[in-house]
């Protein structure tokens, strides 16, 4: 061994990379690596071999000193020089004894490299070490190697060792930086996004367009003729094609026979000598408000004059109560005629019953009941035909106006209480698009300021003024009454203007017949076209332009 070598004391946590770095920084050719007994190097013994190879690659001799038996055993296998606890070198497991104890008698100053791997090379304060005088050979006949110069090293508990530990651990002593909590971070992130969004909204272009709309009132009565005999519209004559439908249907209805309460009353005429006709269903009322009706028309004879005295005349007839309940099973009663109330006849015409009212099992079908059921059956069959044809044509453009349909009874008969009937329903339809064509043509030709007029309103169809089903013709008048016949679709205009430059915007606006004048304002000042989003375009109606 040479006259000088360096001792590198490894810490427990020093790994191979740190030790290689310290080895390469050593200024001595011979280095003794002191490993703690519980060094992490013991976890991977190949690290010893790597350290030895790295030392040899830079021309250094690496020796080892440790109390760890596993490390010692592995070092012997790779023929690495080992120092035991008495500082005698051992090679290949054989102990070599020194001939004399070396004691320092003079101190000298040298530099020791104690830098960690990640630190810059710094020079520590000089340590006072002892200069070893030349040793005397006790046995000159032995060819022993020169004794090594042993530097004065710090004890593990010395200030130098503590300073080294503090030096390597200085990063752990740095003040801990406390970052804001997640809530604070989230708040700043969200605030940043909101601020960014608001800024982008403000810097994006906007367009303000002040427009003055034209106003033209329109009031017109347009005569319309519909004919099944034409195949195309005659705009000059106002005739549009029509389609004639004729459908028939047969049905029947049973007139329900139900129990009723009724009886016989005698009607008196004490009013005048003139007879009085009473129609079917004329009401007769009791003192407590119960209503009974006569079933057929009847003529009440006039009163007779005897000397100067008026003798009432009378006639008997059947009456039926409004309700079939026990309350109507009344005894002999006095009746008045509500229809004559507040007239002189109210006191002159009255009726009496001499017998109690009773339940009538089989009431005869009177004329009023038959006519009522006939009308109900006719309306029912006509509505069924109309519903069927409208359901068939619901997906078409055909329209039916009020009064352009009719129903007639082709056959009618009654058998006991069953009513049978055959009806025919006929109607004239037309297409809505043909009607709009006539309206547009009429307005465009009669109003010079409304050229190319288009009627886009919902149509409220009028009633037919005349219908001739034999000829298949229908006539009606369509009325228009508008304060302004130039509707402005501002939302559609915004979509047309979106993304256009100023010249394109002016071209589109000038083509709109409903705009009288317009003023365009773009923001910010450097913007030369409308925003691509119609939501950023604001159209203001200004009557002062």
Automatic annotation (TrEMBL):
Domain of life the protein comes from: Bacteria
Keyword tags: Membrane, Transmembrane, Transmembrane helix
TM regions (residue ranges): 184-204
The name this protein goes by in its record: Baseplate protein J-like domain-containing protein
Organism whose genome encodes this protein: Candidatus Azambacteria bacterium RIFCSPHIGHO2_01_FULL_40_24
